């Protein structure tokens, strides 16, 4: 079986964003689109230029951006200059409900203290960096495993919008993305039919345990109660109409299978989806950079915390899914 922990390392994949060999840009109305990965049957990732973030984004432009989002699954905007309030306001234009932060370590200990934002950086309230072996350190290690956000929710999430607030990071700051639509499409027909009707149990505590077996071998009662598992189909229809794999390190068990054989298949598929041709590494260049991804048709991962890390201030809003598959499957 593939070793999930092999993913917890700092690296960049073959393709980066910005690319070292940029693809031709496209113009669509006022927007310039610079694609990241392009194959005969899939476009994945694009830098978008031409949005005026100083003003509220007009509804027509939001529509255009959503249609680009459906096509590319990961949109990158440079130097938006957005603050917390405008970050939240734009996210609210993309769906009715934003996810609420459970504040596992107490709202009073959260740097942002804003229930509609998740602090996924590495800075504590007093300005120090997250301490090695703190519970927050161990919790965050799971973000370095390939995943999609909140697949363990009964009502899953649709989009995540991660915004950088500056802080130059020595040695570079990266987030990595994988195209699960193209990966699905390249599977052999027999494999596709084997997967078609499978239902997967997603559990946050499963990915925490994989990344940090000792500390999260037994999550605390309030943690377990806050995030019970959820069930979703493995093969789903993506917003652009193609089939995709809905997968994450949170995926624990295929319904009706033993955990061990489930994990074998799940990690075989995650390995497949994260082959170099389906993956790119996005570089955070400057404060205000924002990446907006579709959790229904991609996976992503962070770089892990290290002893030599420098300050990184990135904040995420998460838009709850309101589509037909939002609630997954009742088992
Ligand atoms: C997230 C996440 C990646 C990163 O916010 O959901 O996985 O690079 N972040 O911080
Ligand atoms: Mn994530």
UniProtKB/TrEMBL annotation:
Q: Which UniProt keywords apply?
A: Dioxygenase, Iron, Metal-binding, Oxidoreductase
Ranges where the TauD/TfdA-like domain occurs = 39-317
Q: Name one Pfam family in it.
A: TauD
- The answer to keyword Cell membrane applying to this record is no
GO MF terms listed in the record are: dioxygenase activity; metal ion binding
Gene3D superfamilies in the record: Clavaminate synthase-like
Which InterPro entries does the UniProt entry name for this protein?
TauD-like_sf (IPR042098), TauD/TfdA-like (IPR003819), TfdA_dioxygenase (IPR051178)
Do you know which SUPFAM superfamilies this protein is assigned to?
Answer: Clavaminate synthase-like
Family indicated by similarity: Belongs to the TfdA dioxygenase family.
Task: Provide the protein name.
Answer: TauD/TfdA-like domain-containing protein
């Amino acid at each position: 079986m593939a070793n999930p922990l092999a993913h917890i390392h700092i690296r960049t994949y073959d393709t980066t964003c910005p690319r070292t060999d940029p693809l031709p840009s496209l113009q669509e109305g006022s927007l310039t689109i610079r694609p990241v990965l392009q194959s005969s049957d899939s476009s994945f990732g694009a830098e978008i230029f031409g949005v005026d973030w100083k003003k509220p984004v007009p509804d027509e432009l939001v529509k255009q951006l959503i249609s680009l989002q459906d096509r590319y699954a990961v949109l990158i905007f440079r130097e938006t200059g957005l603050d917390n309030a405008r970050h939240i306001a734009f996210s609210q234009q993309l769906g009715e409900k934003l996810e609420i932060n459970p504040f596992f370590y107490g709202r009073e200990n959260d740097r942002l203290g804003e229930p509609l934002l998740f602090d996924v950086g590495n800075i504590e309230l007093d300005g120090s960096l997250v301490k090695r072996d703190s519970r927050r350190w161990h919790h965050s290690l799971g973000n370095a495993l390939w995943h999609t956000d909140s697949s363990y929710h009964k009502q899953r999430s649709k989009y995540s919008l991660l915004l950088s607030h500056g802080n130059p990071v020595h040695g570079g700051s990266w987030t990595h993305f994988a195209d699960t639509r193209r990966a699905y499409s390249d599977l052999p027909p027999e494999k596709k039919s084997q997967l078609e009707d499978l239902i997967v149990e997603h559990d946050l505590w499963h990915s925490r345990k994989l990344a940090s077996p000792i500390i999260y071998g037994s999550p605390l009662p309030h943690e377990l109660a806050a995030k019970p598992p959820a069930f979703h189909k493995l093969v789903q229809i993506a917003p652009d109409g193609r089939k995709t794999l809905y997968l994450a390190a949170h995926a624990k068990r295929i319904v009706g299978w033993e955990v061990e054989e489930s994990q074998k298949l799940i990690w075989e598929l995650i390995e497949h989806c994260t082959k170099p041709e389906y993956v790119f590494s996005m570089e955070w260049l400057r404060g205000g950079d924002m990446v907006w991804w579709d959790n229904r048709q991609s996976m992503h991962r962070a770089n892990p915390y290290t002893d030599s890390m420098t300050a990184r201030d990135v904040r995420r809003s998460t838009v709850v899914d309101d589509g037909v598959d939002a609630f997954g499957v009742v088992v």
